[in-house]
Amino acid sequence: MKNPDFQVLHTVTEYARYYGLPAPAHPLLTLINLAEIRAQAIPDPVVAQLYTVALKRGLKGTVYYGRQTYDFHDGLLTFLAPGQVVQADASLDISEMTGWALVFHADLLRKYPLGQKITAYGFFAYEVHEALHVSAKEEQLLAGVLRSIAYEYEQPIDAFSQDMLVAQLEVLLGYANRFYHRQFLTRRMVEHDLLSRFEALLTAHFAQPGNPPLPTVQHFAQALHVSPAYLSDMLRVLTGQTAQQHLHHALIERAKQLLLSTSLTVSETAFQLGFDYPHYFTRLFKSKTGLTPAAFRFSAQ
């Protein structure tokens, strides 16, 4: 994918104008029937400072989302948070596209609990290829909620409009969250393979000679071609621990091994594990074991 200048869209009105859509009926939200759009897709990369929830099918060509491409023949539910990049290939054919897209500004939620809660929905953080595969039954359920949103969206704006739109939007995202966690359970073989590869990378990291940099969740996520949020969610479902907790556990186990099987000082052990500052190592070790590294070594004698 080339990297020309990004087109930044700040408002729902700018979004509608850029894609040649009807003017939005609400200044902070627009609901798009993708079957009614027959214009050629715009290939320039777009950064919308908006949230987007979309169910698309029937696209022919390539859509880039983060560093991954998508095939929308079977229909996927995708989520974009403000600031994420989307780009379509110049040859993308949307003449048979169907589905819907809900685009809204963060200001719509600002005074509601959902304004804070939405940041906890992991699927908005995904930057690689973690779209939601919905079943036909789930798609029908989402369509029912969408009809309620459409009804309210099409009414004249009054003092209750925003309350009703946000309430329906929260129901939609609640179902999406349920379906997303279901996806982890129904795709266990794929996820277990990812878990095995993650554990293999962890083992290989600590087997490196010298002082390799302290491992990060971002490092392993990139190596596995998933986002840090997806990796943590997957591990939490399968093992009850986040990716960061896994890293800390592996780090402490390796530290225990070094403390008991070598004559390295605590500072040398810290450097061996990739810490730049030994006191950070001591703090982490004590928080996980209840003992300082020196006390742990002494207790094992």
Offer a quick outline of the entry:
The protein is α+β, with helices and mostly antiparallel strands. The chain has helices at 12-18, 114-117, 136-153, 161-186, 188-206, 217-224, 228-239, 243-261, 266-273, 278-289, 293-299, and strands at 7-9, 29-33, 46-48, 51-57, 63-65, 68-70, 76-80, 85-88, 98-104.
Describe the protein.
The structure is a single chain. The chain has 301 residues and is an alpha+beta fold. It has 2 domains: 7-186, Regulatory protein AraC (Jelly Rolls), CATH 2.60.120; 189-299, Arc Repressor Mutant, subunit A (Orthogonal Bundle), CATH 1.10.10. It is built from 11 helices and 9 strands. The protein has helices at 12-18, 114-117, 136-153, 161-186, 188-206, 217-224, 228-239, 243-261, 266-273, 278-289, 293-299, and strands spanning 7-9, 29-33, 46-48, 51-57, 63-65, 68-70, 76-80, 85-88, 98-104. The strands form 2 sheets. Strands 1-3-8-5-6 form a 5-stranded mixed beta sheet, with helices on one face. Helix 3 (136-153) packs antiparallel against helix 4, helix 6 (217-224) crosses helix 7 (228-239) and helix 8 (243-261) packs across helix 10. The radius of gyration is 24 Å and the shape is elongated. The mean pLDDT is 82.
List the helices and strands and how they pair.
Blueprint: E1 7-9, H1 12-18, E2 29-33, E3 46-48, E4 51-57, E5 63-65, E6 68-70, E7 76-80, E8 85-88, E9 98-104, H2 114-117, H3 136-153, H4 161-186, H5 188-206, H6 217-224, H7 228-239, H8 243-261, H9 266-273, H10 278-289, H11 293-299
Parallel strand pairs: 1-3
Antiparallel strand pairs: 2-9, 3-8, 4-7, 4-9, 5-6, 5-8
Helix pairs in contact: 3-4, 6-7, 8-9, 8-10, 8-11, 9-10
